[in-house]
Design brief:
By secondary structure, this protein is of the alpha/beta class. The protein has one domain: Aldolase class I (TIM Barrel), CATH 3.20.20. Helix content is 31%, strand content 19%. The strands form 2 sheets. An 8-stranded parallel beta sheet has the order 7-6-5-4-3-2-1-8. Strands 9-10 form a two-stranded antiparallel sheet. Helix 6 packs parallel to helix 7. The structure holds ligand LGQLAAA5. The site of the ligand O=C(O)c1ccccc1N[C@@H]1O[C@H](COP(=O)(O)O)[C@@H](O)[C@H]1O has 27 residues, from strand 2, strand 3, strand 6 and strand 8. The ligand O=C(O)c1ccccc1N[C@@H]1O[C@H](COP(=O)(O)O)[C@@H](O)[C@H]1O binds next to strand 2, strand 3, strand 6 and strand 8. Pathway: Amino-acid biosynthesis; L-tryptophan biosynthesis; L-tryptophan from chorismate: step 3/5. It catalyses: N-(5-phospho-beta-D-ribosyl)anthranilate = 1-(2-carboxyphenylamino)-1-deoxy-D-ribulose 5-phosphate.
């Protein structure tokens, strides 16, 4: 099981996620998000634990130059992109780093299109569609019907996101078959305010849900076909 904790916007939350064993930490560069950080803020948070898990930069329909500007101050290992597959491909080609493409789904019938969209990319972030009126495409604390993912074996790795919490992540993993999960709202006390206990509990609950798979058993994990690079 791999776990990403997204929306890192304070040092204590970041330290807690790293110390609790997060496999990825996410930084949101979308100004309308309550988790938005400037590149300088992200770099300062990351400096608390140099050499910690891969840093995932989240961008919504970014200009390539916006990403380039962030990279001048904040090194990123992976990009999580909300936008077209063509944009995601262009980002991958220009920056030479893994790109995870986010796709909102609500039915099993939408999964083939999601898989197609991910062709040539490194992973799919499968999540709920934003509720009507939402002013951001993710981070809305809404869950999808996890059962639509049961038995899905796309050609590329995928992570499950959207409305996950320490309380429901085990059920989500069991129902969907996900081997990588991502959370933001579910480890907060209010939008944008991370809760340290909930971060620890989320990581523990995720790992306990799939005890045979952990970041330290990579070979076994990769052999499932859901390894996330
Ligand atoms: O977190 C945000 O504010 C955000 C803004 C814009 C796009 C995506 C965002 N977050 C991502 O959305 C999913 C689900 O989040 P949640 O757990 O339901 O809050 C996750 O991938 C976040 O990284």
């Amino acid at each position: 099981m791999r776990v990403k904790i997204c929306g890192m916007n304070d040092a204590a939350a970041y330290e807690t996620a790293v110390d609790a064993g997060a496999d990825y930490v996410g930084f949101v560069f979308f100004p309308r998000s309550p988790r938005f950080v400037t590149p300088a803020q992200a770099a300062a948070i990351r400096a608390v634990r140099p050499g910690s898990p891969p840093a995932v930069g989240l961008f919504v329909k970014p200009e390539l130059d916006q990403i380039a500007a962030v990279l001048e101050t904040m090194p990123l290992d992976i990009f999580q992109i909300y936008g077209t597959p063509e944009l995601a491909q262009a980002i991958r080609a220009r920056f030479g780093r893994p790109v995870w493409l986010a796709r909102g789904v609500s039915s099993r019938g939408e999964l083939p299109a999601a898989e197609d969209a991910g062709q040539g990319l490194d992973a799919l972030m499968i999540e709920s569609k934003p509720p009507p009126g939402a002013d951001r495409p993710g981070g809305n604390a809404t869950a999808l019907d996890w059962s639509i993912l049961a038995g899905w074996t796309p050609a590329l790795p995928w992570l499950l996101a959207g409305g996950l919490t320490p309380e429901n992540v085990a059920e989500a993993i069991a129902a969907s078959g996900a081997m990588a999960v991502d959370v933001s709202s579910g480890v907060e006390s209010s939008p944008g305010v991370k809760d340290l206990t909930r971060i620890r509990n989320f990581i523990t609950a995720s790992r306990n849900a799939a005890p045979g798979l952990s970041a330290s058993t990579d070979a076994e994990y990769e052999s499932t076909g859901q390894g996330v690079s």
